[in-house]
Amino acid sequence: MSIKLNYSKKAINKLSSNLVLFSDEKYSTNGLKKYISNTEFSYINDLLKTSDLKKNLQIFEVNSKKKIVLVSIKNNLKNSDAENLGAEFYKLVNHGKNSEYFVISDSIASKHDSFLGHFLHGLKLKSYEFKKYKTKKETRVILINILGNKNKPSVQNQLKFKALEEGTFYARDLVSEPGNVLHPDEYAKRLNSLRKDGIKVNIYDEKKLKKLGMYSLLGVGMGSIRGSYLVTMEWNGAKNNSKPLAFVGKGVTFDTGGYSLKPARFMEDMTYDMAGSATVVGLMKNFALRKAKINAVGVVGLVENMVSGNAQRPGDIVKSYSGKTIEILNTDAEGRLVLADALTFTEKKFKPKFIVDLATLTGAIIVCLGSEYAGLFSNDDKLSKQLFNAGEKVEEKVWRMPLHKNYDKLMNSKNADVQNINYVGGAGSTTAAQFLQRFILNKTPWAHLDIAGMAFSKYGGALNSGGATGFGVRLLNQLVEENYE
Q1: Could you write out the three-class secondary structure of the chain?
Q2: pTM of the complete model beyond 0.85
Q3: Of the listed 91, 111, 190, 262, which one is catalytic?
Q4: From CA 186, how far away is CA 166, in angstroms rounded?
Q5: Measured distance CA(246)–CA(314) in Å, rounded
């Protein structure tokens, strides 16, 4: 099913057109008379007397061929509220055959100056489906005609919404691909396609990574017949040579756990263990499509954590790009090994203004925060506050968790500089972040987002219909737009 938007000047047929109309939070109907017949006006008013007015949307089936959707716009509406209304509208109309709706935008102008753009944005985000491997292709289309010039999004804002949708959908597409298709070799190949959007892409293969000394990252992929890669994506949209904003993502395309093997149940979900990298890729695509006036770099480590005669063993010691040695006590704590090299490399090569990394890093963060908040760990109060505020505005929420030197003793190794897991027990997400912090060598402002509970939803959320969420693309775009652009 696809959604097609059309800013139209065509006249509606009062007798047969499906309509989307807007009213205030009390469902006042006086402004609707010019769009519907007297009979329909009376019918709607009668039904409203017995309707639950706490609902944001009411749908009235006037006859077998015509529906009228009435959307209540509450006072002090936030942009995220408007997006959620668009998503609710999609749920109402997402059934049956091809359909066409006329959205009348006149009456909303005085309520919220950017309502319509966010309403349609929420509609589009909710409509995403991944059905690439279905042999029976669905061709159903919902055509949305927007009538009236009041409150119509500017051309610039339409482009911004479209870029954000494409970036989010690209991230969701990557996460949704099965592991036999999107292995590291294929992933690196796909990232080359970003060059057409104006992004500079550099791919570091195993030969280059060995020369650089990235044995923390390389160790994770030793058991796979596929290659391991570090890929950098640069967008230079600022007119000056200002320091770039850096975003780093974990890209474990499939995670068996290695010799610290995961249970068979739900292992199929480990195709989404590369969701942090997908967010970074989608974000960079969004920046390029909307011509963001910033300099930004995205860095992703792409590996496959498999079991074989060549695989990394518990007890192995590897040397990271930073020069620090790491004792591998658990091969299923692999994401932090990938990020360790990626973080140090990003800081050293690009000298960024800040670094934000994203990873489906620990199950412990799901125990702590469920699927409502991503875990935020940071060495910088300003960056933390900016991320929290951005998350609240787009409803991709983060909650700050502690980092403290007292946790370091849990990650100190008897045989190396650091061990990759805390075997004492407890504080699983914090000790993982504490591990990562050791690979930020020059006190660059840094934030780690543990998105294990947010990257994939079996049941769907406000702006997604289940599956890959693309969490983080909209959050980080808001962070940049609000504070750095």
Answers
A1: CEEEEEECCCCCCCCCCEEEEEEECCCCCHHHHHHCCHHHHHHHHHHHCCCCCCCCEEEEEEECCEEEEEEEECCCCCHHHHHHHHHHHHHHHCCCCCEEEEEECHHHCCCCCCHHHHHHHHHHHHCCCCCCCCCCCCCCEEEEEEECCCCCCCHHHHHHHHHHHHHHHHHHHHHHCCCCCCCHHHHHHHHHHHHHHCCEEEEECHHHHHHHCCHHHHHHCCCCCCCCEEEEEEEECCCCCCCCEEEEEEEEEEECCCCCCCCCCCHHHHHHHHHHHHHHHHHHHHHHHCCCCCEEEEEEEEEEECCCCCCCCCCCEEECCCCCEEECCCCCCCHHHHHHHHHHHHHHHHCCCEEEEEECCCCHHHHHHCCCCEEEEECCHHHHHHHHHHHHHHCCCEEECCCCHHHHHHCCCCCCCEECCCCCCCCHHHHHHHHHHCCCCCCCCEEEEECCCCCEECCCECCECCEECCCCHHHHHHHHHHHCC
A2: yes
A3: 262
A4: 20
A5: 32
Q: Is 262 considered catalytic here? A: yes
How would you write the pLDDT of the chain (485 residues) with one tens digit per residue?
688 888 877 777 766 789 999 988 888 888 888 889 899 999 999 999 988 888 999 999 988 889 999 999 988 889 999 999 999 999 988 876 788 898 887 766 556 778 899 999 999 999 999 999 999 887 889 999 988 766 778 889 999 999 999 999 999 999 999 999 999 999 999 999 999 999 999 999 999 999 999 999 999 999 999 999 999 999 999 988 899 999 999 999 999 999 999 999 989 999 999 999 999 999 999 999 999 999 999 999 999 999 999 999 999 999 999 999 999 999 999 999 999 999 999 999 999 999 999 999 999 999 999 999 999 999 999 999 999 999 999 999 999 999 999 999 999 999 999 999 998 889 999 999 999 999 999 999 999 999 999 999 987 788 988 899 999 999 999 999 999 99
The Cα–Cα gap between 347 and 444 comes to: 7
Asked if residues 292 and 235 have their Cβ atoms less than 8 Å apart, the reply is yes
CA–CA distance, 384 with 246 (Å, rounded to integer): 15
Give catalytic status of residue 190 as yes or no: no
Q: Which one of the listed residues 126, 285, 290, 336 is annotated catalytic?
A: 336
Answer yes or no: are the C-beta atoms of 407 and 431 closer than 8 Å: yes
- Which of left, alpha, beta for 338 (phi over 0: left; psi -120 to 50: alpha)? alpha
Alpha-carbon distance 30 to 39, whole Å?
A: 14
Instruction: Identify the structural domains of the chain with CATH numbers, from first to last.
Output: 2-152 (3.40.220.10), 160-483 (3.40.630.10)
- Do residues 295 and 236 make contact, with C-beta atoms less than 8 angstroms apart? yes
303: β partners: 252
